Amino acid sequence: MFRVFSRSHKNADQLVRTITKQRFYCNKSVEPATKTSSTVSEEQNHSVHRRMYSVTNFDKKVLVWVGRYKTTDEIPPTVPVETIERARNKGRIKFCNYMIVGTIVGCIFMAWSGKQAAKRGESLHQMNLDWHKAVKEGKA
After folding, report:
1. pLDDT, tens digit only, all 140 positions of the chain
2. Where found, per UniProt (predicted)?
3. Which residues on neighbouring strands pair with residue 53, listed in sequence order?
4. Are 47 and 39 in contact (CB under 8 A)?
5. Measured between alpha carbons, how far is 48 from 56 in angstroms, rounded to an integer?
6. Terminus-to-terminus CA distance in the chain, angstroms?
7. Nearest of 137, 57, 135, 66 to residue 98 by alpha carbon
8. Model confidence over 67-106: pLDDT tens digits?
9. Angle formed at CA 13 by CA 11 and CA 40, multiple of 5 degrees
10. Percent of the chain predicted with pLDDT > 90
11. Which long-range contacts (CB under 8 A, 24 or more apart) does 60-65 make?
12. How far apart are CA 53 and CA 89, in angstroms?
């Protein structure tokens, strides 16, 4: 089967070499191929055709908050869409984690506050009875 493929394909040897290099990429004896001028121009061409996004002030704050840039002055006017999406996702995750921590702290505080009120003898039932007594007397 390989002979049929090698006869029909002009660069079969080159194809086999690239496949074996890709398979054994963890092998330190294999050195990475150097970039030729054609690959550099292809990378430049690829970067030109990337989807760009014009950055708003909020996006700048998010990019700085998630650590993509150190200051808002470093951020270019247009950024790839992938960068914005990753920054927003990281920002969402960070915000949700802060909300989780805030909720846990709030629950602990409310439980502590309720226990303190119970020690003082305050209860919702007693507050309701006092309010009804005040309404009957005409104070409320």
Report:
1. 455 555 555 566 666 666 555 554 555 555 555 655 555 444 444 555 678 989 999 999 999 999 999 999 999 999 999 999 999 999 999 999 999 999 999 999 999 999 999 999 888 898 999 999 999 988 75
2. Membrane
3. 79
4. no
5. 21
6. 96
7. 66
8. 999 999 999 999 999 999 999 999 999 999 999 999 999 9
9. 65
10. 53
11. 62/87, 62/88, 62/91, 63/87, 65/91, 65/94
12. 16
Residue 78 tokens read as: 């247009």
62-95 as b/e: b if 16+ CB within 10 A:
bbbebebbeeeeebeeebeeebbeebeebbeeee
Q: In terms of pTM, does the model score above 0.70?
A: no
- Letter for the amino acid at 39? T
